[in-house]
Amino acid sequence: MRLHRSSRAAASAVGVLLLATACGSSDTTSSAPGSTGFTPPELTAQKTLGKSEGQVNLIAWAGYAEDGSNDPAVDWVTDFEKQTGCQVNTKIGGTSDEMVSLMKTGQYDAVSASGDASLRLIASGDAAPVNTDLVPNYKDVTFDLKKQKWNSVKDVPYGIPHGRGANLLMYNTKEVSPAPTSWSAVFDKSSAYKGKVTAYDSPIYIADAALYLMATRPSLGIKDPYALDQEQFDAAVALLKEQNTNVGEYWSDYLKEVSAFKSGNSVIGTTWQVILNAAQAENAPVKAVLPDEGSTGWSDTWMISAKAKHPNCAYKWMNWIISPKVNAQVAEYFGEAPSNEKACAYTTDEDFCTTYHATDALYWEGVHFWTTPIEECLDERTDVKCVPYTKWAQAWTEIKG
Predict the structure, then answer these.
(1) Do the strands 156-157 and 367-369 form a parallel or antiparallel pair, or are they unpaired?
(2) Which residues are CB-contacts of 74 (< 8 A; sequence separation ≥ 6)?
(3) What's the burial of 177, exposed, middle or buried (CB within 10 Å: 0-12/13-18/19+)?
(4) Beta strand 268-272 pairing with 160-172
(5) Helix, strand, or coil here: 295?
(6) Domain 6-19+49-164+298-362 = CATH 1.10.10.10
(7) Is 375 helix (H, G, I), strand (E, B) or coil?
(8) Local structure of 9: helix, strand or coil
(9) What class has domain 167-296+375-400?
(10) Domain ranges across the chain
């Protein structure tokens, strides 16, 4: 579902990321419990940390485990290997579906799962619960990323938060007037920009339509854009089919969206902060907003395989990747808000965490992070079944035509 996330890091690797951001603060004394209603297979978290096994096999988004081979100046793997004795072997995942399939092989120890994959890994028994006591840097992870419904079940954590980002509404300042403040610009009013609307190419985009309907059609009773019963789901699909006639391009490639906004082929649509920064750096006349209805977003989690052959090295990796300095490096290179609050002190751009709202809890309250749709409704309804991911994927094919 997280299609071509590697496109963003590919852009980073060629110097596209000209990022600007600075640190806020938030209370780290509380956490929000995960609210998923299903019962995963009975697995137990590792109790103690043992001797390093000498290697760790990772599945990661491009840009998450850089060892200097893409850019000699970008390397946080080599020091990890020197300090732990764990050789890092990385398989780059192109999509969430691919990552889920790879984890099922049992050949990998850990994965940087997005919220549209994590519950699938938990439900299938491919991901094990995580003992956060074995990850000392976990204590500094911002509280609103801990024990959330995409990384925990029944208050049991199944991963270590890595970073996050919001899906924003980007627009051409010369072509779109007045400046939009609502997703209505790409849904109800999209015909004004017929052929120049762009949307994210993934079944998870159905949640964007659901989020808009949650605000504009309260009679549908949508409480969570990832927990849709059949009526709610059908309404979201219908809205997207209407929008389809005005969409010029569905994007999954980071650089292609920048190019489309530079050329004027796209003038309005969903984007990420890092894409906005890259487009502005190339003099595209664009701005972006977090609309009044809020937005969807993504939060990645390092999860350990239930079949991990090198669990001790995997735990050491999870602690390393969210350590303040390394988490700052990854965040700046990749273009996301770091999960560790202390990371903001180590960014090369002193304004980085401000631009990415790293510790701005109020900002993130309006962001509904990608979560795998499952039959057990994530909004805790028990009197109906919700539409699962497989049906979202089928509907997406129909929406695009």
Answers:
(1) unpaired
(2) 13, 66, 68, 329, 333
(3) exposed
(4) antiparallel
(5) strand
(6) no
(7) coil
(8) helix
(9) alpha beta
(10) 6-19+49-164+298-362, 167-296+375-400
Nearest CA-CA partner of 294 in 213, 377, 395: 213
The answer to whether 302 and 320 have CB atoms below 8 angstroms apart is no
Report whether the peptide linkage leading into residue 178 is cis, meaning its omega lies within 30 degrees of zero.
yes
pTM of the entire structure?
0.85
Answer for the pair 28, 140: CB distance below 8 angstroms, yes or no. yes
List the one residue out of 357, 341, 388 whose CA is nearest residue 161.
Answer: 341
76 SS3 class = coil
- pLDDT of 81 strictly over 90: yes
CB-side neighbour CA atoms (13 Å) of 309:
10
What does the pLDDT look like over 240-262, one tens digit per residue? 999 999 999 999 887 899 999 99
Cα 159 to the center of its chain, rounded Å: 14
Strand runs (DSSP E) across 222-283, as ranges? 247-251, 268-272
Q: Is the pLDDT of residue 7 over 80?
A: no
